[in-house]
Design a protein that fits this description.
Layout (H helix, E strand, L loop, with lengths): L5 E5 L5 H8 L7 H10 L3 H4 L2 E7 L2 E8 L2 E5 L3 H14 L5 E5 H11 L8 E11 L12 E2 L5 H16 L9 H13 L3 E6 L2 E11 L4 E8 L8 H16 L4 E4 L5 H10 L2 E10 L1
Parallel strand pairs: 4-5, 10-11
Antiparallel strand pairs: 1-2, 2-3, 3-4, 5-12, 6-11, 6-12, 7-8, 8-9, 9-10
Length: 281
């Protein structure tokens, strides 16, 4: 009887087409891993870590992005076992594990007993998509950010990150890196903002962009203006811009306990297509 040959190896630039071809089987859910592969071309110096590939009979069937975040994609049960083994050998080097709940749960069963206690485990995060015009009117004052906006935009980005993650991105000397990331998003046209009277009242970014999809992150409404409709109209504007100029599908994932945000996304026209889990360290 023939036996399936299985192997895990670290992928490189020569594997890029094979990786993007695999991720294209579920391109919206896998948009972040796909984006990282495309933008770094799997060059280790740009990836900031590794991309692992799991093969069966010389066919790539699963990958795992292992850099700032650990992200399994198209993961089979056998691949998850091997990914966990490699992660245990390398030790805890990531800030988060994120992906489909069924994949992250399996990884954490193996990693949890030996890795540090996480700051938070956010299970049941709806992954949402929209590929048609928003169901509500877009805010005409939401526009792409410019580098001239950085002085007022950056504090809003810090506030949003701190509120969402629970830790300021400027802690432990992280300010310059975070500022550089915000600047890059603005410079590449992936930051959207509404500024009223010199302050940011709404903002959002496209964290990942591929030919197949883009993913929204960092949605923020000034605290004193929440519940006024700014978030709904602002998201409609971001979706309109993105569908027209960036990608054919817009996605995001949100905490399951954030009922107000989920209601906004539903009214805009987003629909759930998967469930994610994020483990933060």
């Amino acid at each position: 009887m023939l036996r399936t040959q299985r192997a895990l190896r670290v992928l490189g630039p020569g594997d890029l087409d094979e990786v993007t071809g695999l991720l294209a089987r579920d391109p919206v859910v896998n948009v972040v891993a796909d984006f990282r592969a495309r933008t770094t071309r799997l060059e280790p110096r740009w990836l900031g870590g590794e991309m692992w590939g799991y093969y069966e009979d010389d066919e790539l069937v699963s990958v795992c992005h292992s850099a700032a975040n650990l992200i399994p994609a198209m993961a089979t049960p056998e691949a998850l076992e091997r990914f966990a083994e490699r992660a245990l050998r390398r030790g805890p080097t990531c800030a988060a594990i994120v992906g489909r709940s069924e994949d992250v749960d399996v990884l954490w069963e193996r990693l949890g007993p030996e890795w540090p206690t996480p700051r938070d485990i956010r299970a049941g995060q709806p992954h949402l998509e929209i590929s048609s015009a928003p169901l509500v009117e877009a805010d005409p004052q939401v526009r792409r950010s410019t580098l001239q906006d950085l002085d007022v935009l950056y504090p809003a980005c810090v506030a949003m990150h701190t509120e969402e993650v629970g830790v300021s991105p400027e802690c432990n000397g992280g300010g310059p890196i975070f500022h550089a990331g915000v600047t890059q998003l603005v410079g590449t046209g992936r930051s959207f903002v509404r500024i009223d009277d010199g302050r940011v009242v709404f903002k959002a970014e496209l964290a990942a962009v591929t030919p197949h999809a883009c993913q929204v992150q960092g949605v923020y409404v000034a605290p004193d203006l929440r519940g006024t409709g700014l978030g709904k109209a602002g998201m409609a504007a971001v979706v309109t811009h993105a569908l027209r100029e960036v990608a054919p599908v817009v996605s995001l994932y949100a905490n399951g306990y954030n009922a107000p945000a989920l209601k906004v996304y539903e009214r805009v026209g987003f629909r759930q297509t998967a469930t994610f889990t994020t483990i933060l360290f």
